[in-house]
Amino acid sequence: MAASGAPPFRHLLGIAPLETGEIEALLDTADGFVELNRRSDKKLALLRGLTQINLFFESSTRTRTSFELAGKRLGADVVNMSVGVSAIKKGETLIDTAMTLNAMHPDVLVVRHHDSGAVALLARHVRCAVINAGDGSHEHPTQALLDALTIRRRMGRIRDLTIAICGDIAHSRVARSNILLLTRLGAQVRLVAPPTLLPAGMDRQYGVAVFHDMRAGLEGADIVMMLRLQTERMQGSFVPSLREYFHLYGLTWEKLETARSDALIMHPGPMNRGVEIDGVVADDINRSAILDQVEMGVAVRMACLDHLTRHLRAAP
């Protein structure tokens, strides 16, 4: 992606369509916004006159608030549509929603939906830029971008790092986006999970290493990224009990001993303490980057809004 001018893509629906240069350009832009967000005056006018609608079919605190802050700090008019009381709950289809939104002339639509592919479907029927804020178990591209920015700022690089992604891989859109992005940027990615939470063939499909024993999977790892159990997406029982799951796959200091002594701990949130991670591990100020991830989220989403609206701002 060029540093100026129109971006080569209209929407940000996933990591897969992005070229390495486009990913790096987004991260570079976000780096600058990190410093802006730490100033007392955080407001720019880059998106003045543009309208951003946040349309969340699933509840979210971090992601929606982060996108709202990002838009407002860039000067956009930001509207949060409450799906729970909208016409969508009364039987309106996604296509009807697209037609309604087109009549409002928004410039950017940020969408989270519980069905994989729903955001892409909506994007085909609206006349504005669309950002995928998470669709089912498919992708969550801005989460992967903020994770990459967190790693790059803390470790100085991504290439050749060993990154262990642990937990509910099967139902995690965060895992899929991170696998695509981190391998694209040269990291060695490992997936650590029980067989019931790790789809077969991911090692061949994505070029990653697969482990069912957590201590073996963490051995020599530079980054340990924990994922929560996506119980809302599960049909049936995938683990014997939460207690047993924590015993085998919850991150504790004991399991972390096999990783590098300075291994960084990450989690996209929300955390289930005592299920996938021990609270004392999550709160360690020297090893945990969890709050860094929250901070990087605003900067990355500002970068995405910036890049996707440059063609509008360049128009006479």
Keywords:
13 helices; 316 residues; alpha/beta; 39% helix; 4-stranded parallel beta sheet
What's the quick description here?
With 316 residues, the protein is an alpha/beta fold. It is 39% helix and 14% strand. It contains 13 helices and nine strands.
Question: Numbering strands along the chain, what is their spatial order in the largest sheet?
Answer: 7-6-5-8-9
What is the succession of H and E elements? HEHEHEHEHEHEHEHEHHEHHH
**Strand share of the residues?**
5-15%
The helix content is 25-40%
Overall shape: it is: globular
What structural category characterises the helix and strand content?
alpha/beta
Mean pLDDT metric: 91
Architecture blueprint of SSEs:
Blueprint (H helix, E strand, L loop, with lengths): L19 H18 L13 E6 L5 H12 L3 E6 L11 H11 L3 E6 L4 H6 L5 E7 L5 H15 L6 E5 L6 H12 L3 E5 L9 H5 L2 E3 L2 H5 L4 E4 L15 H8 L3 H4 L7 E3 L12 H4 L7 H19 L1 H5 L2
Parallel strand pairs: 1-2, 1-3, 3-4, 5-6, 5-8, 6-7, 8-9
